[in-house]
Amino acid sequence: MNAPKFNFDSERPPGLPSVTDQPRQVAPASGRDVGGFDPYASESAEPAGATYRTMLFQYLGLVLKHRWMILGICSAAAITGLMVTYTDTPIFRATATIQIDRDVAKIVKVDAPDAAADVGDVMRFYQTQYDLLKSRSLAQRVATNLDLANAPTFLHPKSRSPWAQLKAKFFPTPEVQDGDIERRKAVAAAIVQGGITINPLINSRLVRISYDSPDPAWAANIANGVADSYISANLDRRYGASAYARAFLKERLEELKIKLEESEKALVAYAEKEKILTAKGAPSAADLDLTALQNEVQKVRTERISAQELWEQADKSKGLGLPQLLTDKTIENLRGRRAALMADYQDKLLIFKPDYPDMRKIKAQIDQTDRDIEATAKSVKDSLKASYEALLRHETLLQENIELARTSVLDSRNKNIQFQILQRESDTNRSLYDGLLQQYKDVGVAGAVGTNNIAIIDRAEQPGGPFSPSLQKNLMIWLLLGCLASAVAVAVLEILDDTFKTPEEIEEQLGLAVLGIIPKAEGDILSTIRDTPISPISEAYRSFRTALQFSTDKGVPKTLLVTSPRPGEGKSTTSVALAVNFAQLGMRVLLIDADMRNPSAHRVLKRDNAVGLANYLAGVAMAPDAFQSTDIPGLTFMATGPLPPNPAELLAGPKMITLMSHTAESFDIVIVDAPPVLGLADAPLLASITAGTLLVLGAGETRRGVVKASLKRLHFARARVVGAVLNKYDFRTASYGYGAGYGYGYGYGYGAMEHYGYGATKVAKLEHGPKS
Questions:
Q1: CA distance 220 to 463
Q2: Residue 200 to residues 97, 203, 296, 752, Cα–Cα distance (Å)
């Protein structure tokens, strides 16, 4: 027990610096000791490609984690798509093609538009024709021409789907009575209007008229009927509009002729009476004067605001802080002179007293210079104020002139109001008269033309197969819905599962460095670590041990507390494994089982629990009497002993502090296995007297609120949390590629060792040691 302390530097390879001598720095955001460099500093500068790659792996990991649920939802969606496809009524589509030219009768003709307006007019014309093809009036015309109101097979078509035919065989549908003929006509027109689809061909004057129906014969007949009815309706509109337009335009021309003569006479009489000579559309002299004054006042106002800002700045400034004062040559010379006098005064002050005549003279010169500087500064400020006041007076004068000019403009405009009214009335009457006269002539010519601007290119034929439902389209839609439902389900499950599952979540949510990632393992972990050093679990604990050596600026804490937020997260196993790993380095390690409520370390190490920490704290045993040797060289174990009724009172006594201080001097590292944090006072008490605290978290087990509450309790106890360990990490269910990134996905074993140059003999030596 009293052997000399283990010297870590004596066991390191030549040229390797001591772990405890390495300079380290602490990450300010999380308080983590990160050795000679800060690995977290590179995360903020990580390139965008790496971030996208990480996100891709995260999403891929979620897909692999919930693959069976996603597969089930997508399979159900595909089955639903199949059922929808084979139970829907087959719909047949027939299509007729027509050509629509823009050569139509122009009932109200306006001035010739420019190119841009002509393009817009063409678009509006064709959109109007498409709307007419889908109008209710055209549907009623088709229903009347084809006598659809008396066609029961059209009003009540029978479904051709296998499901509908099977249902009709066992459950016949009774005949439906539609009421009177007017109701049947309305129903037939509504069915026609609802089944029409208009598809204009791009960069063409061709339009496809399609009709969807459960009956292929009716689909072809109605598509052709719509084309024929549209042509006849267009001709009827043209002939009826021409006759009505001629009568209307003739009557309007007579009225406009009389109004035009009266308005022109009234305009000439008013111009002679008021002596108005201003050209049409030209501004008056008063308007020009007002515009010039407004421009000038805006310019003066801008200069006045700038001068006001300079004066307010000068008025508020104290001393020589004003930029104009700092750049003034006079003040600059005075300040230089004062600095020279002050330097001379300070030099002579070393020799003469302040009352010496020369010293008084210099002091008087300095005071005079200060007064000159103050006077010059006041002069500069007065000049800024004078400039501001001059601009303000100029602005006020211009504003008064603007008011006078505005009054003159209003008087001039009042005189021209009536003239402008009469001028507009005369111009409007003349424009209307000329336009209607030309349109009257055009309507007369258009009425004599009997050609139509619409022609049928292809008539509709009876379709040979259904247009919908489409098996491929339905499967794609339902599979897409299945993928969306799967994404929603995965998102809901991930949101509801607020446990820590990856190291990144611990670092982001808690600000703790993840010192180790321990994979999920079964069986005797202690035997695996001791007898199989190349196993994944052994490599994980060695990596954890290495990270712990760099956790503080002094290396591994001399006294390390291992705890967890709640029971069952593997803190005792972690304590034993960590103690074994440090003992394998040749260090003298003391493992104290301080969980005097549910001890388990003695069972892992296969040691007696009759005498231990409780006996020492109760004063019935000395510390060396409670120590036990183990099968691992360098590892000493102190069990809990008999479970006391008051563990917290024993741990809070001075003997626990004495034990920690004495063992820290006798051993290279003391590892304390503490009870869970929440609900108990033991862990905060122990954390307050140890140099470092390690938090063990079970992957996917503890809720984040519980962990944060545990950390809060540890911080209140002034514990120094050096980091966290993610225990029971299952790489098969974690994010894709994460295990490989941490070195646990390469398959440790004989094959892997031989790949790196180890033969079977070397592997046997690594596992069992050299033969005696």
A1: 7
A2: 9, 9, 59, 68
Specify the DSSP element, H or E, that contains 184.
helix 181-195
The CB density around residue 665, as the number of other CB atoms within 10 Å, is 9
Give the closest residue to 320 by CA, choosing from 307, 309, 334, 306: 334
Q: Can you tell me which residue has the tokens 């005696």?
A: 772
Interior/surface letters 78-102, b for 16+ CB within 10 angstroms, e for the rest: eebbeeebeebebbbbbbbbbebee
**The dihedral of CA 295, 300, 301, 303: what is its sign?**
positive
pTM: 0.47
Asked if 651 and 521 touch (Cβ cutoff 8 Å), the reply is no
Structure tokens at 516: 């180790």
3-state class (DSSP) for residue 256: helix
Q: What is the mean pLDDT of each run of 10 residues along the chain (772 residues)?
A: 37 33 36 37 48 79 83 90 78 89 56 52 86 89 86 73 58 56 86 89 90 86 89 78 72 80 79 66 67 80 77 64 62 75 79 80 80 71 74 79 76 72 80 79 60 83 80 87 90 80 82 85 76 81 86 86 89 89 91 90 88 88 88 91 88 89 91 88 89 88 85 89 86 51 40 35 36 32
523, two tokens: 């069986």
Q: In what order do the strands lie in the sheet with 206-213?
A: 196-200, 206-213, 92-100, 454-458
Tokens of 474: 């339905």
* Helix locations, 350-470, DSSP H: 357-446
pLDDT at 11: 35
Tokens of 707: 């962990």
Task: Please work out, in degrees rounded to the nearest 5, the angle formed at the alpha carbon of residue 736 by the alpha carbons of 734 and 739.
Answer: 70
Provide the pLDDT for residue 172. 55
Distance CA 194, CA 215 (A): 15
Q: Give, as one character, the DSSP assignment of residue 9.
A: G
Q: End-to-end CA distance of the chain, in Å?
A: 27
Task: Tell me the HSE value of 372 on the side-chain side, using a 13 A CA sphere.
Answer: 15
The encoded tokens of residue 238 equal 């043209």
Q: pLDDT tens digits, residue range 517-533? A: 888 777 677 777 777 77
In sequence order, the 6+-apart residues with CB closer than 8 A to the CB of 142 are 148, 189, 192, 222, 225, 226, 229
How far is it, in rounded angstroms, from Cα 699 to Cα 562? Answer: 17
Q: Which SS3 state, helix, strand or coil, does residue 696 take?
A: strand
CB 586 within 8 Å of CB 698? no
